[in-house]
Amino acid sequence: MTATAVAAAPEVQPVALRRVYRFELVKLTSQWRLRLVFLACLLAPGIYTAVVSAQTSLPADAVYGRWMNQSGWAGSLVILVFMGTLVLPLLTCVVAGDVFAVEDRIGTWRHLLVAVRSPRRIFVAKALAALTVTMVLLAALAVSSVAGGLISIGSHPLPGLDGHLMGPGALARTVLLAWLSIVPPTLAFSAVGLLGSVALGRSPLGLLMPVVLALVLEGVQLMPVPVALRVALPMNAFIGYRGLLTTPGQLGPLWTGVAVSLAWTMLATFLAYRLFVRRDFTDLAHDGSARHLVVAGLAPLVGLTAATAVGVVAATGATGSGIDRPKLEDALATSFSHLYVLQTEELHRPEVTEEQLHTTATCDKGGDRVEDLGPGADWRCVVTWTLPGATATGTAIYQLDVAADGRYVADGDGPKEVNGFFQIRTPTGDAPNPLWQFDGFVDLLDNARKGQQ
Amino acid sequence: MQPTAAIRARGVSKTFGDVIALDEVDLDVPAGQIHGLVGPNGAGKTTLLGVLLGLAVPDGGTLEMLGTPVGRALAVPGGVAGFVEAPGLYPTLTARQNLAALAALRNRADGRPDDVDELLDRVGLHEVAGDPVRGFSLGMRQRLGLAAALLGDPRLLVLDEPANGLDPAGKRQVHRVLTDLADAGATVVLSSHRMDDLAALCDEVTLLSTGRVVFSGPLGKLSAETGDLDHRLVTTDPERARRVVRTVPDLRLLAGRTSLSSGDERELVVRGPEAALDDLVVRLVAAGIAIRELGPVVPPLEAAFLALTGADLATQPADEESAR
């Protein structure tokens, strides 16, 4: 065979990003595992909401759990509670945590690089594809949970976390915004998934990083850590939507959560990108290294958390747990007054407004020897109010179980006709007593009332 | 003047830590040639193929492919395709989906879309085009990998062990695809451990050992590099044959059997020039000893490979006389 002349070939440009993105989507959507996950996301919340709403025993531990048989919107809000604890970190594991690792597992990196000719575009396309699939799964969860509740129970009003009654329109807006509010922390966990996937290759530890991180942060959230550290973690952003369920909205934690989540997203994505474009793809046995991950991945995120915590202290002056007596008294009095009005309406008693009640609350934590600060199940509060035209004031006792994240459950302790029994007798029949047990929350970052203590 | 070399490498070096993977490698592959890359494990073949595909950047030296200097990772010119180690295929996609998805990534020079089904037919996978790749045998994956490499009508194909895992029919099909490509003017660089594959396909080979080129040129020249070959001699009367062998000038009778010998008790191993072997045949016939087999213990190309890479030293049988 004789040599033939070759014309000088121009250097080929990398493949267009949209083509690589489409390729990544094709690969992701061809996985049976992901198809099953999608199906589960589409069906499980709806079925859970419909089935549990029909039960007499409701998941009262979850915010709005005790309202699931009263309003179809409550089911979606309960599902939202589960999202932040494990479901979304798990989904980000399955999608973002595997999107790079899968190429290591099946040995296709070289092939992909030769075809695309740009590690940068591969990274961007993979990240976008993972983001797209995660958002589709999240949308499926939201739609399913809302549909399950509305179909089985219907669109009925629901009290907010400060007791004010929210109509179907307001609930629809709030539930939609609540689901949107968990997008940023989902992005943060996805970015951590990308980081683990890039840094640890075929190692299962890389795949599990979002879940491991979620479990660690969940543990931190359960502890009475300073509020500045609490809000500096992306986990806190999963519960920021609670501020949407009060009037006026307590949006400090929500916006802080959004900002923290976006900062985590950007930093973790940048770290993953840097690790990826610096990788030597000629090493087929690449399994990453834990040391590399710690130094180049986790250490900067820990640094970000520390810097955020310092920033939160500087900006809000929030110290300690963020839970103190004045905040709790104020939150409880507000919720009680709203729910008292609701109870009055249900009982068809003479109309009364929150302002007319002049409700106050006095709380104490664990007796005289314990400082009235921080979370705990030993808060005891006495609520007092005055009915228009009456000379005597009414009093009701509540035991409060206050969680470190600011949520509390108020358990009525009498008198029986106000908050001591779980049902009330209305002209149309027995109905749940809104004052018997209710959820509320205190804004951990709100220091306006601190001086009143 | 237009260049005639599809690949022109000068002094290409690559190290990984303390390991020298490529040591001042020179390589010239004319356009339209099927060029074999051969060497023992760890010789640097995969690294060199990786460099040719742009997956690794040389630490030193110059590389020109299809007339274009290559200096950065993944900056090889258009028209270069192939695979290293194994073809990268996605097990959850079907054969057709794998090719279609890859075809969507690539721009053909003529702007026409790739005919995926024609490619599948070309490598003999048309009947399983709709099957997921996860169920494919190694040979089927190799053929699909070749089809993937053919997307976009490459002008230079770089393949690592393309016949690995193929049955004889599959191997013949792959060989036909590669020779057709070369006939059409494309250049093929392939690595293989199988000297018979190289002999059947390649115009020239480059032999690497510990990162260095120890031979580069036509196959015939490689065979000539070998000295006297060991030959297996099987006769009807081994004892008398042994005595005859000792009478032939320039012919040595080797003791013991090589690791490649048949294990036949009647087998002798002799070493000498072709003229001495001719003389042996004449003497055996004259002595009335029937020759059942006389052939090289190791094929000439393989012998050259072993000799040039020093791999034959471990299996070298001793002279029968000196062994006594």
TrEMBL record, chain A:
The chain crosses the membrane at residues 36-54, 74-102, 123-151, 171-195, 207-233, 253-273, 293-315. The keyword Membrane applies. Keywords: Membrane, Transmembrane, Transmembrane helix. Pfam families: ABC2_membrane_4 (PF12730). This is ABC transporter permease. It comes from Nocardioides koreensis. The lineage of its organism: Bacteria, Bacillati, Actinomycetota, Actinomycetes, Propionibacteriales.
From TrEMBL, chain B:
SUPFAM superfamilies: P-loop containing nucleoside triphosphate hydrolases (SSF52540). Keywords: ATP-binding, Nucleotide-binding, Transport. The keyword Glycosyltransferase does not apply. GO terms for molecular function: ATP binding. InterPro entries: AAA+_ATPase, ABC_transporter-like_ATP-bd, ABC_transporter-like_CS, P-loop_NTPase. It holds the Pfam family ABC_tran. PROSITE patterns: ABC_TRANSPORTER_1, ABC_TRANSPORTER_2. Residues 7-235 form the ABC transporter domain. Belongs to the ABC transporter superfamily. This is ABC transporter ATP-binding protein. It comes from Nocardioides koreensis.
